Amino acid sequence: MRLVLLVALTMTAFAANSLLNRAALASGGIDAVSFGTLRLLSGAVMLGALVLIRQGALRLGGRGRLAGVAGLFLYIYGFSAAYAGMPAGLGALLLFGMVQVTMFGGSVLGGERVPARRWLGAALAFGGLVWLLWPGGGAAPSLPHAAAMLLAGFGWGIYSLAGRLAAAPQASAAANMVLAAALGLLVQLGMVTGGVVAGGWSASAVALAVLSGAVTSGLGYALWYALLPRIPGSVAAVAQLTVPVIAMAGGMVFLGEALTARFTLAALLVLGGVAVSVIPWPPRRAA
């Protein structure tokens, strides 16, 4: 029971990132780039401190580091840019669907043998994304914000694929966060100097960004990496199916977001497709 509760807590933390980001940007108290930078910096401090306390040192190099840092950078800033004009639940669904499509494509390109049911699941998930983004009916999301979230999903997919190469996942996650935060800080300073990003952040928006980075990202990732060795891979994949649902429920309760028929159908297709891909089918019994 304790393990189930910890998994549920981790999925809630992942979904909370969508709620915190959307709430901060909707308030107008901070811009998307600054939110992403503060999230990276606070996450880097938290994960870096955890690794230093446990291991005494933080190694920034390692296999797959370039892909990991690039993927995390794309995810953080694409995620923030998308939530400047997108509901929390819708964004989480787009992100989740694109992550699965990216990881599926990466597996195929890497020469992995893909069974028929995973092709079927990928087709269903992709169909759900197409339906969600198809123009018309007044329910389709803004294409620029949708494109930003798809870019974020692509980045997180790359980050996840690169994570498979890590011998020490938690230390690797900390190194990726520290390096991405350093790059993000350079981008932030350049945009402030160029007048692209203005100051004047509200205290509440800054608090939401730090909470997202240090707690629901930093501690959330650390807890997830600690749980992964204790649960089967298929269970881990299925558990993540709950993230868009939790984000959608949270958006309705805390942000006053509406549930549409279009979103519901797209969610069923995307989550159903991923479930078909990751849930093991029982073997056929011999006649």
UniProtKB/TrEMBL annotation:
- Which positions, given as ranges, span the membrane? 36-53, 65-84, 90-109, 116-134, 146-166, 178-199, 205-228, 235-255, 261-281
Per the record, membrane topology reads: Multi-pass membrane protein
Q: Does the keyword Transmembrane helix apply?
A: yes
Q: What is its main location?
A: membrane
Report whether Transmembrane shows up as a keyword of the record. Answer: yes
Q: Which domain of life is it from?
A: Bacteria
Q: Which GO terms describe its cellular component?
A: membrane
Give the matching InterPro entries.
AA-Vitamin_Transporters, EamA_dom, EmrE-like
Q: Which UniProt keywords apply?
A: Membrane, Signal, Transmembrane, Transmembrane helix
Occurrences of domain EamA (ranges): 148-278
Cellular localization per UniProt: Membrane
Q: Secretion signal: which residues?
A: 1-15
Query: What protein name is recorded for this chain?
Result: EamA-like transporter family protein
